[in-house]
Specification:
heterodimer; A: about 160 residues; alpha+beta; 2 domains; three-stranded antiparallel β-sheet; 5 strands; B: alpha+beta; four-stranded antiparallel β-sheet
């Protein structure tokens, strides 16, 4: 959570600074006070950077604020690949997830049920699947239940 | 963490209106509530995920509750699902 908010603040600051530079560059162009002829193109470059930062970093984090406040996260079961753990990042075949390694502990090769923000992929919670299975068996969930789940999974795998 | 499995006996399954009622109940608790249905994990607070899971009559769903009031949350949700009516 802390990591998410820091990154959100950082992204807003970066986007804001680029926007200020862009407005200044446009003002200089309008007043024709460019020192170098090539600086006429500066707004174009700044617009590209601004759009890239906004679309890829700031907007997804900003939209995920709603999910954080309402505690509605996307949930998935993943297996941590070998060498998939980096500095605060988890790289799987599908996505790159961000997580706070002082808050969430992940180990290579283990299966986790992860809860993450749907657009910016920040891990909020990770539960070891073994723990879930143990607690499921402990309360004596009938074999019928686990069988029905297993059957659904096998059907899904067959369909894939 | 507490876990329970419930069979959905409502003939129409867990349709939109019931899903919204279930979400409203889940939101009333502090505990983190995750439902395993149709082979997928879904958040009980997310109505769109609940509807997308397309839980049908006779299907068994597993409810995982984790947090302060997990026992109460589990009991309330199990009771709600067991007593569903169209």
């Amino acid at each position: 959570m802390v990591l998410f908010f820091w990154s959100l603040i950082l992204c807003i600051l970066m986007t804001g600074i680029i926007l200020i530079f862009l407005i200044q560059a446009l003002r200089v162009n309008r007043e024709r006070k460019n020192r170098h002829p090539i600086s006429f193109l500066l707004p174009v470059a700044l617009t590209i950077v601004f759009l890239y930062l906004s679309i890829n970093l700031t907007i997804p984090r900003f939209l995920d604020l709603v999910n954080l406040l309402s505690k509605t996260y996307s949930i998935e079961e993943i297996e941590v690949p070998e060498n998939g753990l980096g500095w605060n990042t988890l790289l799987t075949a599908d996505h790159r997830y961000f997580y706070n390694q002082w808050e969430i502990e992940l180990e290579d090769g283990k299966k986790y049920r992860i809860e993450y923000t749907p657009r910016s992929y920040y891990l909020v919670r990770a539960t070891l699947v073994e723990t879930l299975e143990v607690s499921t068996r402990a309360i004596g969930i009938s074999n019928e239940t686990t069988e029905s789940i297993a059957t659904e999974e096998s059907i899904a795998q067959e369909n894939e | 963490m507490v876990v329970a499995s419930v069979r959905v006996l409502n003939p129409a399954g867990l349709h939109a209106r019931l899903a919204s009622l279930l979400c409203a109940r889940a939101k009333a608790f502090q505990a983190n509530i995750v439902i395993r249905a149709s082979g997928y994990y879904i958040s009980a607070r997310n109505i769109l995920d609940m509807m997308a899971a397309n839980v049908r009559c006779g299907e068994v769903i597993v409810i995982h509750c984790d947090g302060q009031d997990e026992a109460n949350a589990l009991l309330a949700l199990c009771e709600f699902i067991a007593n569903l009516s169209e």
